[in-house]
Amino acid sequence: DKLPLELQYLDDDKVIESDPDIRKMLLDALLQLCATKHGREILRNKNAYIILRELHKVEKDREVLLATENIVDILIKTEDEINLENYKNVEVPEELIEKFQKMDEEYLKE
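Above: the chain's sequence. Below: its structure in token form.
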């Protein structure tokens, strides 16, 4: 009921985008929206999580799965848990950046 009306009653001819690069770019755009509190609230209010959950069930491409999970990890947190207006203002230590990159690389190898 919170999903946009055009997504509630999709015709049978509607399919998931076939190109994984385009799916990844679309997810990257959603991740950019997750950077700000306002963007996160919009995505939550539009129930983006439900769509991402369904994508995750059928997705085979590891990069797309990782991008989906990164967004979900943000959206499932409350704003009290996040306690930031904008993720882009956070300074991440270099050693943590490297650690996260290695974690992503390992995930993509699985």
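The first helix runs from residue 5 to 8.
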